[in-house]
Write a structure and sequence with these properties.
The protein is mainly α. The protein has one domain (9-439). 67% of the residues lie in helices and 0% in strands. The chain is globular and about 60 Å long. The two termini are 38 Å apart.
Length: 451
């Protein structure tokens, strides 16, 4: 068995901005050390990933914090909706409205998830193209993506099925539990239907609806990543336009029923958000002048502006009388709402990538970073926990709606930590072991000066 020594910390990028600079430096040095630089870049990416997997830490703390905030937003929406949106501060309608606003727009956490996922997954492909090295190995990429999603999901599905057999309800009760509904769950074939033709089957957990979308993007990324190069990236703009056209055609020609809504909200209706995330990664590594300008205080200002735009975006719906909600809107201006949200997220990512200290101290703080680490398990378990509490008189037992939200958050965190500790982390370590075996025989990466 081979044992690898820890890599020199100076060789591992502290931010993904530095990783792009290192890739560019590798390309510039290819005349002298072409073979060594290419193989070193591959080793650097794998070693950095392996070190992260073993330690459980995120190289990019602000992005991990953003992931945690997105998960908290989704939780706040679901908990607040179960309580039927009660006023937060009686006698102070304006204050109550402002406090309720971030909870009511918690569904935008999904917009953040999708854009962030595309950004991070596209970066290795952009860096490889910039450095002139081979793209990430498809086999390793597929293993990492599947082990990121499937283990925690499969364990949760088995637990829910066992609870259903025992007569304990933690699942979505909007549809009866039939054999067909159970059959589609492990295949991610829920939320597929056509009015009057194919009956749509609902997921056992409502929040699962995003998983087929994420998996669909995982399948497309290796091919879409071929467009992340000069002269080709413009094709991703056509994907954004196509998503708008798809959404408009469905909303304007089909009856507004759940089957239509889910067709609009699934791929290709959400491909615009992934395309924007990919383009953000491409611009981040390919726009050195803009990157140099967005630094320090400017990066902080950009982050605050982008985050503020993201928070007030639902107010765009007031043009038609009401703020934008979780359901797709047929109004022309709002057809592309998800693209607007992704552009705001891209601004936050661009600023966060410069390693800003002020933003890092808040968004990248330890509590949010740790929460981002368990965010996937938290996303899976928060709704079953809330449903179980709610259907067992949790609001009454907690002696109030906001005490109910507190206990729901607490129990959801406990379930998420257990899932992360005993399911997610072992799967990540398995990927790390495979990566280590794949790295045997590669040379030590070349030191690169960073600005």
């Amino acid at each position: 068995m081979f044992r690898h020594k820890p890599m020199n910390a100076a060789l591992v990028p502290r931010t993904f901005a530095e990783s792009c600079m290192m890739a560019k430096q590798t390309r510039d040095n290819r005349v002298e050390q072409r073979d060594s630089a290419q193989r070193g870049a591959v080793r650097l990416e794998a070693a950095g990933r392996t070190a992260d997997d073993r330690s459980g830490n995120d190289r990019y703390p602000v992005l991990s914090g953003l992931r945690g905030l997105a998960a908290l937003g989704v939780f706040a929406l679901h908990a607040y909706a179960l309580l039927l949106f009660p006023p937060i501060w009686l006698g102070h309608p304006t204050v109550s409205f402002l406090l309720a606003w971030p909870m009511k727009m918690g569904w935008t956490g999904v917009d953040l998830f999708f854009t962030l996922s595309a950004f991070l997954l596209a970066l290795p492909f952009v860096r490889a193209q910039l450095a002139g090295t081979p793209p990430p190995d498809l086999g390793g990429y597929a293993r990492r993506r599947l082990l990121r999603i499937l283990p925690a999901y499969t364990v949760q599905l088995l637990i829910l099925l066992a609870l259903i057999a025992l007569g304990i309800s933690m699942q979505d009760l909007s549809q009866p539990v039939t054999a067909v509904r159970l059959l589609v769950q492990p295949l991610f074939l829920y939320d597929i239907g056509w009015s009057g033709v194919v009956q749509m089957q609902w997921p056992l957990v409502g929040s699962w609806w995003t998983l087929p979308i994420e998996l669909g993007f995982y399948l497309m990324l290796p091919w879409l990543a071929r467009l992340l190069r000069p002269g080709r990236w413009q094709w991703l703009l056509l994907l954004i336009a196509f998503a708008w056209i798809w959404r408009a055609l469905l909303l304007w020609t089909q009856p507004y029923v759940p089957a239509t809504v889910f067709l609009v909200e699934h791929l290709p209706g959400r491909i615009d958000q992934f395309a924007i995330g990919m383009l953000a990664a491409y611009a981040f590594c390919r726009a050195p002048r803009a990157l140099a300008w967005v630094a320090g205080g400017r990066a902080d200002v950009l982050f605050v502006i982008a985050a503020s735009v993201f928070l007030v975006l639902p107010a765009l719906g007031y043009v038609y009388g009401n703020p934008v909600g979780a359901e797709p809107d047929m109004q022309p201006l709002l057809i592309g709402w998800h693209s607007y949200a992704s552009l705001a997220v891209a601004g936050m990512l661009f600023a966060a990538g410069r390693g800003t200290r002020w933003v890092s101290s808040i968004v990248g703080s330890l509590p949010l970073r740790l929460f981002g680490q368990i965010s996937y398990s938290f996303y899976l378990w928060h709704l079953p926990v809330l449903m179980w509490l709610y259907t067992n008189n949790g609001v009454t037992l907690a002696r109030g709606p906001f005490a109910f939200m507190f206990y729901g958050l607490l129990f959801s965190i406990v379930a998420a930590v257990i899932s992360w500790r005993f399911v997610e982390r072992p799967a990540v370590r398995m990927v790390a072991r495979w990566s280590s075996r794949a790295d045997v025989g590669l040379p030590t990466p070349i030191p690169v000066e960073t600005p």
